[in-house]
């Protein structure tokens, strides 16, 4: 051993996680309000908050190849095309 006076490390060292996009740390209410000045998207808050822990979790599950998967809209009950487009644009613009 090089330094016998130091105890051996027993816990493996993990590689640092990639930095999380700060926009993915927004609380759901702030995220929804920020996407839509008319506040129509707030109607989805309770359902999203009840089913997901964070915006980062939504991103990990549903964001792929630069787009939000259609399953996100099915799972959250977002049916209006205009609302879907707002979410799609937000993810495209903020999650590259």
TrEMBL record:
This is SAM domain-containing protein. It comes from Polarella glacialis.
């Amino acid at each position: 051993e090089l330094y016998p006076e130091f105890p051996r490390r027993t816990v493996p060292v993990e590689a640092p996680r990639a930095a999380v996009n700060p926009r993915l740390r927004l609380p759901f209410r702030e995220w929804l309000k920020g996407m839509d000045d008319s506040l129509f998207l707030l109607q989805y808050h309770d359902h999203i908050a009840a089913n997901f822990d964070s915006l980062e979790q939504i991103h990990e599950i549903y964001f792929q190849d630069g787009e939000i998967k259609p399953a996100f809209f099915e799972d959250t009950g977002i049916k209006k095309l205009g609302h879907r487009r707002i979410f799609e644009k937000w993810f495209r613009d903020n999650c590259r």
